[in-house]
Amino acid sequence: MTAQIITKSLDRLVQQCYSRAVAQGALLFTESSVYKHREQGVVFEVRYVPALAKKPNSKPKEKQYAKDFVDPFLPYDEHLHVKQIGDTHHLLLNKYCVVPHHLLITTAKFRQQGEPLSEADFTAVLATIDNLSSRNIVFYNSGEESGASQPHKHLQVLPMPEYLDMPPSIGLWLQSMPPVGAVHTSKQLPFAHFGVLFGDSPLLPSNVAAAYQAALSELTIKFGSECSYNMIMTRSAILLFPRRQSSWHSIAINSLGFAGLVLAKTKDEQEFLDRFGILHILSCVGYPRAQ
């Protein structure tokens, strides 16, 4: 009974904060056209968002060292603040979103985006997704080639489309029957990745942090400690994807690409996605999977 009340409470809080922020002009929602792209029996969501063509692209360090840089999370915009999570994190609405209720989990004090995630970070993640009724994708962009844009450390939480049970990359990865608790690489994915299946036990911050550290250690051994990567997480698994470049033919890719959501700014980009395939593009911005 208590869990149900908490779940409804956070759902309502997010919805109320979102509606208020939109009405006040603090949150800018961008309309997009959505279509489903199928490959290898799984569905990717492609959003055509022409407004993004006007948005300048800059990497975290470029932005941080610019003379006019202002940290958007310190101080945060009160209109975007959903709640404080302990003493270490804040839950904010994403100011620029193409999907409603896109959330950010930011560190209360400045930490560098790209730092390894900590148990405290995963404590904040679980405090958020455990109290939301929707299925969510948690993701983290680490490093200059990951698609990250802000230097202040933050994870992101996005509601999964209703027609998707899980991100397509995780769906393909699960086809190889990964063991619970061990780092696993699947032949179903053509790009390098390191994943850990959680199993049916309740998720604890310490267990999630240990799974993340195990996957990150494997990634670091093979690609070095300076390698950029994307992380995606659901309640069933956590996967890391090393990155060698942030975009392909002007199509910018961050963790959401590996989670199954790709944004196209122009019709040409949309046609490129159809012609070459999303899995191929993810292989180009990532690394080929070792045979």
| SS class | alpha+beta
Q: Main β-sheet, in a few words?
A: 9 strands, antiparallel
**Euclidean distance between termini CA atoms:** 50 Å
Number of helices: 8
Key phrases:
291 residues; alpha+beta; nine-stranded antiparallel beta sheet; three-stranded mixed beta sheet; 8 helices; 16 strands; globular; disordered N terminus
Tell me briefly what this model is.
It is globular, with a radius of gyration of 18 Å. Helix content is 30%, strand content 25%.
Report on the structure:
30% of the residues lie in helices and 25% in strands. With 291 residues, it is of the alpha+beta class. A hairpin with a 2-residue loop joins strand 2 and strand 3 (42-48). The protein is globular, with a radius of gyration of 18 Å. The chain starts with a helix and ends in a 6-residue tail after the last helix. Residues 1-7 have low confidence and may be disordered.
